[in-house]
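Hi R.,

Quick one: here's the Nucleoside triphosphate pyrophosphohydrolase sequence you asked about.
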Amino acid sequence: MPVYNKLVRDKIPEIIEKTGKKYTTRILSNEEYIKALQEKGFEELEEYVEAKDTASSLEELADVLEIIHSLAEYHGSSLNEIEEIRKKKADQRGGFKEKIYLIEVEDE
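And here's the predicted structure, written out as tokens:
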């Protein structure tokens, strides 16, 4: 039996059950949950980086966004609040649309 030891989406046990397979799960503590979310975030970003086409890239970005939703909720926030913070930072420092790649800055 394969061992996964990772955070999965809420309906995965139900999906596995419909296949007739046996599985084992447990509910994480808050400390374990935030760590697992962070690890899952890295996993999803890596899958995005490895995506070979636009459809796969968008699928992985949707997974990243789901992680961001969960992280925001864990921290007592929302995607709306995070979006406001993002807009403020973009107003103050800009975004990444101009594709600027900083090479070096002269020391004083």
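The chain has four helices and no strands.

Cheers,
M.
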